[in-house]
Design a protein that fits this description.
The chain is an alpha+beta fold. It folds into two domains: about 30 residues, no CATH class; about 130 residues, RutC-like (60s Ribosomal Protein L30, Chain: A, 2-Layer Sandwich). Helix content is about 20%, strand content about 25%. It is built from two helices and nine strands; from the N terminus they run ββββββαβαββ. Strand 7, helix 2 and strand 8 form a beta-alpha-beta unit. Helix 1 packs parallel to helix 2. The longest helix has 18 residues.
Length: about 170
Amino acid sequence: MSNKCALCLHPISDWSFNTFSGQTVIHLHSSGEKQLRRLAPETVSRVPPRYEGVFAHGNLVENPERILFLAGQIGVAPDGSTCQGFDAQARQAMSNVEALLADADMTRANIARVVYYVTDPAHLKPLSDLRQERWSSDQAPAVTTLVVAALAAPDLLVEIEVTACQTSC
């Protein structure tokens, strides 16, 4: 017997034959298996410990099954009102991302890449603190944070763009 998945050829250590509706299924993998492999070669600067839960230089997605590209999410509530202030807008934008992930049957654990846009450098520290509070994880996404002159409307202070994935293994 092979030690590779019959469907995706991914090396596996825990599989078995199962029969469902008369069909033999070999594609079994642990649900706890990591979807992303954090890239951290010695030739690139080490991520400071404070940021290890919220930043990775890169993530390799092995055998992607589903990829979700979210448009930039802003601090606009479901009723269409724009939240007031940076903290409220950032929290709402994060909630919007989480709602879209849930709609795609994904969670924050599926996030592979995040791009944050802020309109004021003074918002970088509050953004970092909020990321630590809400989105810190053992498998941090690849992150880019940009300070921009403006977003799509003059009252918008932050925008969050996300790419998420699920793997077949």
